[in-house]
Amino acid sequence: MKSVESNLQIITEKIAKACEKVGRDPEEVTIIAVTKYVTIERAQEALKAGIIHLGENRDQEFLKKYEVLGNQPIWHFIGTLQTRKVKKIIDKVDYIHSLDRLSLAEEIHKRANRKIPCFVQVNVSGEESKHGLPPEEVLPFIQQLAMYSNIEIVGLMTMAPYIKDEQILRNCFRSLKQLQDEIQNLKLPYAPCTELSMGMSNDYEIAVEEGATFVRIGTSLVGE
Q1: Are 215 and 29 in contact, with CB atoms under 8 Å apart?
Q2: CA 220 – CA 39 distance, rounded (Å)
Q3: What angle do CA 21, 25, 30 make, to 5 degrees?
Q4: What is the DSSP string of 86-114?
């Protein structure tokens, strides 16, 4: 297995090229190492390589790693979050990427003792297997969040279809970017929506070209 450091070098170069292509600054793009399928040792290797953002998608696996790594990483919860699991993770995570319903917003607000940066998850592709709100429901949903003072909508998140068709991927990321622009135009104090969490191992370069500020990379960074 290649070292995280050598994988990171390749990914960083690819991100820099994608940014150059569209006139962006690579500093605008944050890499989240998705450590959900790897050992604690491999997650530690990612930290040693200089990655400070780690992503987990299951509460038990996250809590196991948290026990060892504590607050060293900036923790992103990127999986579907069941309402009843919120209390287990809320005082340990830095970002939640999967806000997609009011019952979850209510629970986060109730359990948190500080403002939690959240991404609204959007199902741009319309695939039944994916979670998230359909694009047309995102604006009304965000407007309903005004009363939850412990939630800050920092951005939007999506997962593109797992395919090779570049045009479909591009359209998917572009739609999320357009939605972000619409929300930013509303100038809601609780929803600055400055971030876009999109792009994974197979499509992060396209996502960066289309405006991603956080890319969630597992396989090609830390392995299976």
Answers
A1: yes
A2: 15
A3: 110
A4: HHHHTTT-SEEEEE-SHHHHHHHHHH-SS
Contacts of 99 (CB under 8 A, 6+ apart): 81, 105, 108, 118, 119, 120, 121, 151, 153
pLDDT digits (tens, 9 = 90+) for 101-125: 999 999 999 999 999 999 999 999 8
Task: Give the CA angle between residues 59, 63, 69 to the nearest 5°.
Answer: 140
User: Which token pair is 155?
Assistant: 């951005």
Q: Is the dihedral of CA 149, 193, 175, 74 positive or negative?
A: negative
Confidence of residue 207 (pLDDT cuts 50, 70, 90): very high
Res 1: pLDDT: 83
Which residues have CB under 8 Å from 111's CB, separation 6+?
Answer: 86, 87, 90
In Å, how far are 138, 194, 215, 217 from 124, measured between CA atoms? 11, 18, 17, 19
CA-derived radius of gyration, the chain = 17
Q: In the numeric block, which tokens belong to residue 198?
A: 């999109």
CB 127 within 8 A of CB 136: no
Q: What is the pLDDT of residues 1-51, one digit of tens each?
A: 899 999 999 999 999 999 999 999 999 999 999 999 899 999 999 999 999
